[in-house]
Amino acid sequence: MFTSEERDRVRDRVFELARADERVTGGAITGSGSVGADDRWSDVDTAFGLAAGVDREAVLADWTDVLDQELDVVHRFDLRHGPTIYRVYLLSSGLELDISVTPAAEFGAQGPNFRLEFGQGAELPPAAAPDVDSLIGWGWIYAFYARAGIERGRPWVAEFGIGGVRDQGLALACVRKGLPAAYARGADRLDPALTRPWEETLVRSLEPSELRRALAVAAVELVREIGAVRPALAGRLAELLPVRRSPSTPRG
Questions:
Q1: How do the domains of the chain map onto residue ranges?
Q2: Cα separation values, 208 from 28, 142, 153, Å
């Protein structure tokens, strides 16, 4: 398992590469480390702006050649989001290293977890909050998907769908309470009175009766959350979703 000292060395080496690269216009620490909230389990999150016309993949390829020689990289892959490429490295110590590269005009803080270390960052509007109607829509899609999985005798499909309902419902609660919604980052900061009912949506076996039980609870809790933001819609969806009891007033 990696140590905090290794994490610091890896981060410093990445910034050393970036500072020496004339194609880079600025560099930042992102994630928990940017606000001093990193702990024993935190990874290395870095972000860099690139000059206009610079090939993002070429920069990542050059840096990867160096990092592959200096670090024991087990695996790596890329994620793309808008103008940004995220290259994710897994090191043999279990440390995750994330390097993102973005054109300079779109490189900057869109939230609190961004600390510029050198160079310049653009003034960007805050990142938009998750769309409530999309969360609601995915919630009922997952519920229907789970129900179909049960009836088709596909229990793993059903289990996946039930988890999706739970994820969307908790994300709705996070948005409603002003907490981060992506990847359940705010879920542990919700009032236990909000999260405790969702514990009953955890599937205990793949038996059809158990899947139906968990889905019924998930549907109730999803409708309850929807009712907090779209009361009329919650009533309509309660007629369509596999809800076995009428939802009560939203908690919290």
A1: 4-119, 132-240
A2: 49, 17, 8
- Starting at the edge strand that comes first in sequence, how are the strands of the sheet with 73-81 ordered? 73-81, 84-91, 96-103, 44-50, 24-30, 114-119
State which fold the 132-240 domain adopts.
Four Helix Bundle (Hemerythrin (Met), subunit A) (1.20.120)
Cα separation of 221 and 196, whole Å?
Answer: 10
What global pTM score does this model have? 0.85
Distances (CA, A) of 199 to 12, 70, 89, 202: 41, 44, 33, 6
Question: How far apart are alpha carbons 98 and 95 in whole angstroms?
Answer: 10
DSSP-based three-state secondary structure for 131: coil
Question: What class is the 4-119 domain?
Answer: alpha beta
- DSSP H/E element including 12: helix 4-19
pLDDT tens digits along 186-235: 999 999 999 999 999 999 999 999 999 999 999 999 999 999 999 999 99
pLDDT tens digits for range 111-156? 889 999 999 999 999 888 889 999 999 999 999 999 999 999 999 9
Neighbours of 237 (CB within 10 A): 21
